[in-house]
Amino acid sequence: MRTNRKTIAAGLGAAGLLGLGLYLAVPASAADPSPSPSASPSEHRDQPGRLGHPGRAGHPGKGHPFWRARALRGVHGEATVKRKDGFHLATWQRGKITSVSSGGLTVRSDDGVSWTWTANDDTRVRKNGDKSALKNLANGDQVLVAGERSGDTRTARLIRVPKKR
Questions:
Q1: Do 129 and 144 meet the contact criterion of CB atoms below 8 Å apart?
Q2: What pTM, to 2 d.p., does this model score?
């Protein structure tokens, strides 16, 4: 049986959507308020590659699921995820900003798909590795947006502008 590029791309896309679904679902299901014991900072530094990110030992949160998604080169997608409160449609898009307002932004992917995202107080914006705000984004910025869709409304939970290389 021959494996062609389309088959491989479809498999990688499905794996990326699964990863995104887990990223969005796991925080919602982690409702246990009791803290679990953790290693001291010095123990973290002694474990290179901890949290699944090579060379970033001892930095909680740096093993972010999206660093793996970059390798997939996907431009947009959706996945249905199950949480305690029911099913949700997780969605993501990579592309350039075509318009920004105080209530959201429109992003156009390389394949021509254009989606409008709403933003609210829960939307996290990261620009060049630092916390930022929606007002600091500009037309033409390359972004990765992740959130949820309900009906025709996409609500951004994370807007990330990668560091310039």
A1: no
A2: 0.58
